[in-house]
Design brief:
Strand order of the largest sheet: 1-2-9-4-7
Largest sheet: 5 strands, antiparallel
CATH superfamily of one domain: Jelly Rolls
Strand content: 25-35%
Shape: globular
CATH class of one domain: Mainly Beta
Bound molecules: fe (ii) ion
Order of helices and strands: HHHHEEEEEEEEEEEHHH
Number of strands: 11
Structural class: alpha+beta
CATH architecture of one domain: Sandwich
Length: 261
Amino acid sequence: MTTSFARLSDFLSTDVDWDDSEDDDTMWRVGDFASSLVRRNPSLVQERMAEISRSRSLMDELVPHSEFPHRRRDKFVLFRDPGERFVVRLHRFHPCGSTDTEYGPIHNHRYPGVTVLLRGAYQERVYTEVARDDARRTADLTLDEERVLAGGQVDVKGWRTAHQVRNVSPDQAAFTLFVRGPSLRRFSHIYDLDNGTFMDTAGAHDLARVGFLTAMMGSAAVRSRHDAMRFIGPADQWSERYDVMMRVAEGQGFPPPGTAP
Ligand SMILES: [Fe+2]
């Protein structure tokens, strides 16, 4: 039997022209398809996580690319396209009662992305970069809007758009299904609005991995992905993370409020 998640990964593999992923219409097609599947089967993500947690080979493939535990937001990789055109993830934004209530850093991405709110809500500020001087590392941003994204909503974001996010609930995590498109450039940026400056990042994944290790080991030696991989070692050493994945998989499904059948 074809699972709902397999229908999603098949659609993303065969029916989406990822060469057109800079076009928002392409990404809205992805979002509309994913949200319609979730409406029909609110347990789609939960079923996929259970499938992953039962399979050592899927665990070995996907868990090392996931980021948890993370201070603000966990990322669980659900599917990686072998051609690296797209990745499907579950994001879990921690409630502000368990982390700080301030917004995370203002940043953009190297790729276009689609978010489907599965459960809960988060607040977001969206910015446009109106000027950037790469030599001086300065940038001007304007705040376009501040909004709340809640269960059932779909959001498309191109790589040019900067944003920052926080979960305002004191006790409810927010869960999102996230599809990221191909990396369209080498670096993303983290902005310092007060100073009008920015810095390049080599990708949130590498940064978080290095940051996590640095925090754990207190080591200034962990400065690069190469260093990180040296410390992390083979996938066997990620076994404690498997337990977290299984606990999430064993949780409830993610019916968006008011849209469950
Ligand atoms: Fe982001």
